[in-house]
Amino acid sequence: MQNLSVVPDTVDAMRVATWNVNSVKQRHARLLEWLDQRQPDVVCLQELKLTDDAFATLIGPDLTERGYQFTTFGQPQWNGVALLSRVGLDDVVRGIPDAPAFGAASDIEGRAISAVCGGIRVHSLYTPNGREVASDHYAYKLEWLAKLRDQVAADTVPQLVCGDMNIAPTDHDVFDPAAFEGHTHVTPAERQALADLAELGLRDVIRERWPDETVFSYWDYRAGMFQKNYGMRIDLILAGPEVADRRAAAWIDRQARKGKGPSDHAPVMLDLDAAPDGDIGPMVPPPSAGRPAKKGVKLPQAQ
DNA sequence: ATGACTAAATACTTTAGA
Fold first, then answer.
1. Rounded distance, CA A213 to CA A6, Å?
2. How far is it, in rounded angstroms, from Cα A288 to Cα A81?
3. Which nucleotide is nearest to A166 (CA to C1')?
4. Domain extents in chain A
5. Rounded to two decimals, what is the model's pTM?
6. Does A14-292 carry CATH code 3.90.1150.10?
7. What is the pLDDT of residues A220-264, one digit of tens each?
């Protein structure tokens, strides 16, 4: 899986984002507008709800025009993940090695894709929901997470594990912990799966930046949950130490959850400082925390 | 209120999401 030949001689500052768009078809205009405003260099998308061909036909030209390469693992109706990059897109891995199937053995769902972008292996993930704790889907979720852990452990390129993990890391990441008792997304076994990734050195960059704040990435469409800020933080960016040490900014783009026709998830954003020439290894300390220079684009206010 | 909303196909009702 590792391929050091694709690591560039210098590593520039870059902006990485992950966003569960809940249907590219329904979010097409908003997605393009968001790309133009935020100018991310690498984007992980989830819940495409399109086949690879349909994705390429619908939005491929728009992405190419904006300088993005892209790769997808799509399905016609549900799931589907993508990676967009304008800092290289090499050594694509579709799915997780030995990932479990749900239902028919041939039915490997479109829930994981990764590639090396700007010297970092970036994963775009849509972890199974789990539905109910007593369900087959919950067992499938845990097994899928275990295989993800194995995949991450086997790679030596610096990593960014991004996506809709469908797990709230702590009670601080749900609006009402009591309301979730006995439900998926908050169980000890699911949280242990995140702890197992942390054990490999992956760090939750949003929580590191906002250690005490209430920060959510998902709000149910119903009952004015967004307006009340009754949400959950289940979309995560987990960074290997070499990457996490380059953090210049990390925030959740709540603007994208506002207005007419939003996804129920907001993008999670990470700005990385440049790494020293040819050195993508551990750094001490990172350079100044200014955001990478992008022509004519203002840094949105975090929170 | 075992709700509320959104999206896609199974399509005027069901399944899934979380």
1. 38
2. 33
3. B18
4. 14-292
5. 0.89
6. no
7. 999 999 999 999 999 999 999 999 999 999 999 999 999 999 999
